[in-house]
Amino acid sequence: MKISKGKSTRAGAQTTRNTDPLRLVRVLLTTYYHLKYLRDMTSVQMIAKDEMVERFLDCASRGDLANVSTMISHSSQLLNESGRQGWTGLMLAARNGHFDVVKALLLNGCNKYLANKSGQTAYDIAKFWGHRHIARFLASSGDVTLPGIQPRNKSTDNATYFSKEYLNRMSEKRTDSEWLSAKQSSPETVFIVFHNLDPFVTTEPEVMNDIQNKLKLYRFGRDSVKEVLENSDTVVVFLGVEKQECSPSSLVSKEDEHIAWFALNTKKNPTESLKITASNSFFLTKPMPMLLMLNEDEAGIVAQARSVLAWHSRYSFCPTCGGKTKVDEGGYKRSCLTDGCRSLQGIHNTCYPRVDPVVIMLVLHPDGNQCLLGRKKSFPPGMFTCLAGFIEPGETIENAVRREVLEESGVTIGPVQYISCQPWPMPSSLMIGCFAVAVSTDIKVDENEIEDARWFTRQEVIDALVKGHQAVFSMPPRQAIAHYLVKHWIGINSNL
Ligand SMILES: NC(=O)C1=CN([C@@H]2O[C@H](COP(=O)(O)OP(=O)(O)OC[C@H]3O[C@@H](n4cnc5c(N)ncnc54)[C@H](O)[C@@H]3O)[C@@H](O)[C@H]2O)C=CC1
Ligand SMILES: [Mg+2]
Ligand SMILES: [Mg+2]
Ligand SMILES: [Mg+2]
Ligand SMILES: [Zn+2]
């Protein structure tokens, strides 16, 4: 993580001031949006709120514990509010070494996992600025720990591509058809459109957003998808509402008033009936590897939307009686239309979106210095990855790991440890990533499933990560959990 040190103590957000050539552009844009924002506001109360946030951040930044405490006792919402560059009071207090303020904010329930626009949490900031006692406190506090339960592990929890939750799913609203239709007609609501499960994307960077990523989901408004929504072939899924931390300056307090997102899928190409204003916009064909080119927030949204839409496209008839079905619960249920069908009595998993659990494992040699990787015929030449396989009915994760490794490579596994997981929306798997320690080392490849499997040394793996194609083998893309597991094993920071 890169943070350049500057002189300012008000906000580390200003620390790149002397070196950043785009600063002037950003300042102008910020001023423009700020003025536009003020002009758009209708109530004096809103301005007062904005000022209050500014004052709160200032007090936190200066270490004014008395005022910080008074302000949060009046409005706990201030705890997670942020100012320029996404800096919260906690980050500012951590930046300037105000331990008492950090403590008070955390004790009052402030979210220590929020990151600013450079991706730094309060912990990262405290560590960088040398406030070790604050960093230690931030690392250890806040999580509820129970005997035998591991504390939340920031490095493995939600660390994989497709796993970031940008939206609050608000499942309780799925049965509230009045609320759902009000949201569908709201001018603020975001619609994302799929055609045969391919999302509509644009290469145009949105103003004020991160411009590093090449592809963005095209965010349609209600009027642009009107015709598509009226089409009987269109499937609509309610995805959720934007989380508070996605729009930190939002003045709306209740989550159900936040911006809602819906996904649409059509069989017929809807391009003509969509109102598209940006050039360079298209349906993203070839899910692999194209779906790996989205930014992390949007990858999470696609993981959810594409899996549910894929379920609709594959399960249009009732699996119990073969009859017609209708879409219910905001797209999260299909109910049979045949009177007396067994699926209408009680609860049946056939009515809900399916997820296929898959184990994926990095097999470690008993000497601790080699790992087992394999390749299928269909892989690009030279690429090796972790072994993987579908969990079968009535099987535990550990037993599935042992069975798949034995089937595919002939290697026997002892201990198995869960590391991390990844939704894989092609169409709807959950990859469960584990380390598996081998107790035998002879390899006997099952040629029906894989073409080759080999032990690679730690050095060969590091070379593959660092040198790419000049190494003895090549790694899967960084977005795949296999890549994550390998890096995790050799202890290389995932930002490498
Ligand atoms: N994200 C990542 O890093 C990686 C993801 N994967 C994914 O893991 C998944 C499973 O890996 P495989 O080695 O193919 O599994 P596998 O070793 O269990 O073999 C696949 C075979 O299992 C059978 N099968 C059993 N249940 C199935 C189900 N629910 N859906 C489809 N086929 C089923 C089929 O005959 C299929 O040909 C694949 O979808 C693959 O895309 C695989 C490697 C890396
Ligand atoms: Mg297998
Ligand atoms: Mg397999
Ligand atoms: Mg299998
Ligand atoms: Zn039925």
Structural write-up:
- This protein is an alpha+beta fold.
- It is built from 14 helices and 15 strands.
- The chain has helices at 23-40, 44-62, 65-74, 89-95, 99-107, 122-128, 132-140, 177-184, 226-230, 287-290, 296-314, 397-409, 458-467, 481-490, and strands at residues 167-168, 190-195, 198-202, 216-217, 235-242, 260-266, 281-283, 325-328, 333-336, 356-364, 370-375, 387-390, 413-424, 429-438, 452-457.
- The strands form 3 sheets. Strands 1, 2, 3, 4, 5, 6 and 7 form a 7-stranded mixed β-sheet that branches. Strands 10, 11, 12, 13, 14 and 15 form a 6-stranded mixed β-sheet that branches. Strands 8-9 form a two-stranded antiparallel sheet.
- Helix 3 packs parallel to helix 5 and helix 4 runs antiparallel to helix 5 (99-107).
- The longest helix is centred in the N-terminal third of the chain and has 19 residues, at 44-62.
- The radius of gyration is 25 Å and the shape is globular.
- The model is unreliable at 1-19 and 207-212 (pLDDT under 50).
Q: Shape, please?
A: globular
Tell me about the biggest sheet? Answer: 7 strands, mixed
Structural class: alpha+beta
In total, the number of strands is: 15
Distance between the termini: 10 Å
| Oligomerization state | single chain
Helix proportion range: 25-40%
Bound molecules: 1,4-dihydronicotinamide adenine dinucleotide, magnesium ion, zinc ion
Which short descriptors sum up this protein?
496 residues; alpha+beta; seven-stranded mixed β-sheet; six-stranded mixed β-sheet; 14 helices; 15 strands; 18% strand; disordered N terminus; binds 1,4-dihydronicotinamide adenine dinucleotide; binds magnesium ion; binds zinc ion; NADH pyrophosphatase activity; metal-binding; NUDIX_hydrolase_dom
